[in-house]
From TrEMBL:
It comes from Diversispora epigaea. The lineage of its organism: Eukaryota, Fungi, Fungi incertae sedis, Mucoromycota, Glomeromycotina. This is RNA helicase. The keyword Lipid metabolism does not apply. Pfam families: DEAD (PF00270), Helicase_C (PF00271). InterPro entries: DEAD/DEAH_box_helicase_dom, Helicase_ATP-bd, Helicase_C-like, P-loop_NTPase, RNA-helicase_DEAD-box_CS, RNA_helicase_DEAD_Q_motif. SMART domains: DEXDc, HELICc. The keyword Nucleotide-binding applies. Residues 269-441 form the Helicase C-terminal domain. It comes from the Eukaryota. Residues 86-258 form the Helicase ATP-binding domain. Transmembrane segments: none annotated.
Amino acid sequence: MKSETETANEIEELSEKISDLKTQDVKHNNLQETQADVKIIRIHDDEPVLSVTTFEELNLHPDVQKGVYEMGFTRPSKIQAKALPLLLKSPPQNMIGQSQSGTGKTAAFVLTMLSRIDLNLKAPQALCLAPSRELARQIMVEARKMGKYTPVTTAEAIRDSSSNNRDRNTTFKEAQLIVGTPGTVLDLIKRHIIEKKNIKIFVLDEADNMLNQQGLGDQSIKVKNLMPRDCQIVLFSATYEDSVREFAGRFAPHANEFRLKIEEMSVKNIKQFYMDCTDEEHKLKVLSELYSILTIHQSIIFVERRDSADRIAKRMTDLGHKVIDLHGGLSTTERDEVMDGFRKGSAKVLISTNVIARGIDVMQVNLVINFDIPVKRNEDNKIVADPDTYLHRIGRTGRFGRKGIAINLVCDNYSWKNLRSIQEYFERDITQIKLDDWDHVETFLKNEIKALDAA
Ligand SMILES: Nc1ncnc2c1ncn2[C@@H]1O[C@H](COP(=O)(O)OP(=O)(O)OP(=O)(O)O)[C@@H](O)[C@H]1O
């Protein structure tokens, strides 16, 4: 059985091959920034899109509404305003939703899950799959907050999530809302620990990742095939590659669909920069320098491989910086401790592989550094730039309209070529910060961060 870490592991392994690649010379060109507005297009169903402006208009159960208000949500976000009236329709309709990172997709599907549950029936009725244990746990926190004033019963279906089997079996038997990772959920359904027959809504968060055949696709498809026929299928993500979108259409037939144009996918409130380093060692020095001069709230440094995460964490610690690192090689307990510590703010700098590239929401993160530019294997099995992962990574900052900074470190033609492909894909400007004068770098970045704080 594949675990939730395996997708991240596969990506980590890809980079083992990177050093063997010969790359061609490319020019350092910045692209014109597009000014395209965010538009959400509904392409299925002829009825006009009804958009609400308040949570009251959605006729949520008063206890659910109370939970939502207590979370400080005064009115629905754009995607919630447009998607929720469709998601809550009776009879239920499938949905393929896309909106930028940090725009509130979680609440859109969690509110639908809570609204579909018959609270008198103590059995699984709403199931959500996410690509990592960290994201599954986060979604569950959000669901428990929203359902706080209801008697909804919940369970996390992630590895080692419960103390003993007896408790675990009772919990899953009675849990009305379950969030988990695909491998664990599939295993629990097959062993009849999760009873599937009353499940009314099946959600895939980060759906493109979950349907990607190379990743978690197999398990998610198997789980979906076990769902009752009339189960509402809801897919959400900030990105959908064309090949995955086509498959998503078959996975969730007759779905209402919200799409973004490529140039609208990148969140405008994240300022994107790059720094041209001489080699890997220089990248480490730049990193250390950056953390010496900057007072950041919290930040995430993304790397491709586990051993790089450990190596950079060690070097940064030796240089006197307080950092923690997270990757698929840690035990589940260690992963939970690292993530919980970061959420509480006890650690300011988190070094991670792609395992937390998607979905993770820590509001205080105002800086993301791509120590390595993200890559993937294309259909020809070649290693190429991975714009979708790039977008998800930088989307760990700039959450829900806040501002953020993303800095990419390039050190050779290979990394530059990959960064340039990403620029071209999104048609967004990634501006160079020159490294010849650190006083200038310091003033420049301090001003940028001051601007973020003032905004
Ligand atoms: N209506 C709202 N009012 C205020 N805050 C909200 C609202 N909806 C969501 N949020 C907050 O916005 C943040 C981002 O939401 P969420 O994590 O659901 O984004 P997302 O679209 O799923 O992002 P990603 O694509 O990265 O997974 C969260 O902290 C969430 O609590």
